[in-house]
Amino acid sequence: MTDQRMLTGDRPTGKLHLGHYVGSIANRVRLQHQYESWFIIADLHMLTTKNTRADIDQVSGNARQMVLDALAAGIEPERATFYLQSAIPEIGELNTLFQNLVTVARLERIPSLKDMARDADKETDMPYGLLGYPVLQAADILCVKANAVPVGKDNHAHIEVTREIARRFNHLYGETFPIPELITSEVSSLVGTDGQAKASKSLGNVIYLSDSAEEVRKKVSAMYTDPNRVSADVPGTVEGNPVFVYHDTFNDNPAEVAELKERYRAGTVGDVEVKDQLAAALNRFLDPIRQRRASFETQPGLVDQIIVEGTERTRREVQQVLAEVRKAMGLAGAYNQLRRKAERAQKKGATQPGEPTRLRPADAVAYQGSR
């Protein structure tokens, strides 16, 4: 096993979709043989935009679905460590320590945070947690000393903050963290089926990895296409057309795609045929994923076991890293000095073990004079 580590993950807000696949999952599958792989179920990050009790109650179910999707997409369980973020309180302590290594102004310059606030309808009232999202993300990455982070385009600026925090920490307290490398996917993001924005669960414009063949056909038939094309004999626009974006990304028959584009531009093929061919291509792509998912679903408790064992392993790792961090910063030494002095005082009879400490009269005078 390599000593290089990869970390990435998702918020447990529902099943994974084709946008997740092109943005990160394809890279995770490809890189799992090169790196020791850690996948975070980021439920604390979820709280920045979804924090009602009803949202939180869905975390365990959504976590299972996410892990199933990841395994179905090709992640091998014996090569992966999945863990639940909220079950590792040490990550929160790292987050607190890292908050002092980055400025508010730096965080406010991250454009994706504004997009997240807008999508969550919190544009004019951004929570502190959302502003600090990249700092907690840095704690996620550095808590296992990850060397590589495969993410979509919208997270590039976040990972740069992680790199800056790691450099700053190393400069102040000594070499402790690797500087993680950003690994970009070939297709950084995927337009939604509505053609109006990127694929997003909250916008309902996605095709899920777990969708049935019939669900895929229905969603493709309703996809946005060239609005100026009122009939099949009108030449259409291919560039930026969501139907052809999906063809380019998922159709395993390039010759078919090239022919459809030529006929579309010439006005000799209708949208129905183009969409039928896309639905067929997407189902060819998703069929192996569906089969693997069904196989894992037949093993009751498997996913829960994977998450629990991964979380426990990760916590042990994070505890070791946090101990290194506290030692490097000198935080452990401060309390140890106080404790040793208190123990010496007890041995001299100033206090009895288990009894509250009381100042002697002379000490009390000196204390009052110092105020």
UniProtKB/TrEMBL annotation:
Region (Disordered): 339-371
Coiled coil: none
Keywords noted in UniProt: Aminoacyl-tRNA synthetase, ATP-binding, Cytoplasm, Ligase, Nucleotide-binding, Protein biosynthesis
Binding site for L-tryptophan: 140
Catalysis: reaction(s): tRNA(Trp) + L-tryptophan + ATP = L-tryptophyl-tRNA(Trp) + AMP + diphosphate + H(+)
Residues noted as binding ATP in the record, renumbered to the chain: 11-13, 19-20, 152-154, 190
Gene3D superfamilies, per database record: HUPs, Tyrosyl-Transfer RNA Synthetase
Pfam (any one): tRNA-synt_1b
Keyword flag DNA damage: no
UniProt cross-references to CDD domains, sorted A to Z: TrpRS_core (cd00806)
InterPro entries on file: aa-tRNA-synth_I_CS (IPR001412), aa-tRNA-synth_Ic (IPR002305), Rossmann-like_a/b/a_fold (IPR014729), Trp-tRNA-ligase (IPR002306), Trp-tRNA-ligase_bac-type (IPR024109), Trp-tRNA_synthetase (IPR050203)
Motif ('HIGH' region): 12-20
Function: Catalyzes the attachment of tryptophan to tRNA(Trp).
Subunit structure: Homodimer.
Family statement drawn from the similarity comment of this UniProt entry: Belongs to the class-I aminoacyl-tRNA synthetase family.
NCBIfam families: trpS
Protein name (Swiss-Prot/TrEMBL): Tryptophan--tRNA ligase
Lineage, highest ranks first: Bacteria, Bacillati, Actinomycetota, Actinomycetes, Streptosporangiales
